[in-house]
Amino acid sequence: MDVKFAHLSDCHLGAWRNEVLNQMGYEAFEQTINTILEEEVDFVVISGDLFDISNPKVDVIDLAVRELKKLRDKNIPVYGIMGSHDFSPSDNSMIRPLISAGLFIDLSKGELTDNKQLKLHFFQDEKTGIKLTGLRARKRSLEIEDYKRLLRENLEDETGIKIFVLHTMMSELKPVEFKEMESAPKSLLPQNFAYYAGGHLHKTVPEELREGDGTFVVDQKNNIIYPGSLYPTNFRELEKYRYGGFCIVSGDINAESQSVKLTIKYIPIKPREILTLVIDCANKTAIEALDLIAQKISGLDAEGKIVTIRIIGSLTSGRAYEIKSSEIAEQLKNKGALDALINKNALTSKEYAPVSVAVGKTNEEIEEALIHEHAEKTTMKKTSKKDMENKIHRILGVLGTDREEGTQVREYNEELLNQFLEIFDLTKKGKSL
Ligand SMILES: [Mn+2]
Question: Strand locations in 189-243, DSSP E?
Fold first, then answer.
């Protein structure tokens, strides 16, 4: 029989603090549900992190309920698991009311056996007969411990066409740029499933899904699929991927002969065009850098787009904070940009190069080293570097003194001020400040 299902993951609804981008995330979800309805799928699989946090605000829950209800009204079941972001160890995830309302079927259900193994249950999809199960995530990839005590026999021996839903990175599939990400070997997954619906990784893997004519054949070697985030969830993802999307998986299954032929079509979701720009300000003064940025912006067609600008390089003079993100964003909005995100993390100044700290030192040693390095870079008339270092230590000492019981705030402030004045050999002008 013909089957067709949608596989989405890492929607992270409510992830953005920037309201424009947050709305984009909502729009992406709405577009996804509309596309799913047009495609007339048999069911939907969500591989975790529908929400960015386990207790999102009302807007997010309202959106999810509204959209998922459209699926239920068409009798399209939604199967899923909780991800590392929307799982709550105390069972207080806002996914719970979705489950109670029948809008989300939690696949990660089972029991502990007598010898403390985890036995998962199957859910059989009524229309297609496909059997689904999955294992939810926990914070910091702790679910890997659950995989180690997973009872595999019942999962592997179950007959029929099966889908396993996971929110865990598989080591063998981990892209190099995610080398710090916790992962588990593929050998921990139960075998004999036709499709492994992956979540957690925000990049689309296999990468070919996003390339070519958009159809990808699922076989035994390529059956663990990560659609990636439905919409970018932070600056880096926006800059790197520019859009997210989901998978429509379709094909032919025969439960009796256990034969499965599935292909995947990746559906990109682009509520608005994203324009990304990197501006290198190396060997420029802060003023020259501002000119360069203004010039680059004047040449952009930003109308109706979301623009990301990453400013990099080491300024010869001036400070990085003289390049004001809010002013650059304003220039872009004047050019019609829907919104602009500016990242200056890699912008430094030769006058003020960042100090580096060795790992493995105590807090006191780090503080000592930082103060020393800062003092070396600070010039103040009539104050030697060593004197400056002493002054910084003394200021921190003063700031660290607590207000004594019974002392009034005003007295305490006065005392602090006097001590500062003394440190800098200053006299107080006038009576009070
Ligand atoms: Mn995620």
Answer: 195-198, 215-218, 224-225
pLDDT of residue 366: 81
CA 320 to ligand 1 center in whole angstroms:
32
- Reported pTM: 0.81
pLDDT for residue 411: 86
Give the end of a domain, one of 349, 384, 408: 349
**Cα 203 to averaged position of ligand 1 atoms, centre (Å):** 10
Which pLDDT does position 358 carry in this prediction? 64
As a whole number of angstroms, the longest Cα–Cα distance in the chain is 94
Separation of CA 217 and ligand 1 centre (Å):
25
Asked if residue 402 is part of any domain, the answer here is: yes
Residue 333 lies in a domain: yes
CA of 159 to the centre of ligand 1 (A): 31
* 265, 278: one domain: no
Q: Is residue 309 part of a domain?
A: yes
User: Which stretches of the chain drop beneath a pLDDT of 70?
Assistant: 214, 352-360, 429-433
Q: Are residues 60 and 134 in the same domain?
A: yes
Q: Is 95 exposed, middle or buried (0-12, 13-18, 19+ CB in 10 A)?
A: buried
β-pair type (105-106, 244-254)? unpaired
User: Are 139 and 230 contained in the same domain?
Assistant: yes
Ligand 1 centroid to 349 CA: how many Å?
Answer: 35
Give 210 Cα–ligand 1 centroid separation in angstroms: 19
- Which residue among 269, 294, 324 closes a domain? 269
CA-to-CA distance for 399 and 321, rounded, in angstroms?
25
The tokens 């995947």 sit on which residue?
264
Range of the domain at 415: 370-423
Structure tokens belonging to residue 424? 């800098």
Taking the centre of ligand 1 as the mean of its atom positions, its distance from the CA of residue 179, in whole angstroms, is 16
Domain count, the chain: 3
Residues recorded for the chain: 433
Ligand 1 centre distance from Cα of residue 150 (Å): 23
Indicate whether 243 belongs to any domain. yes
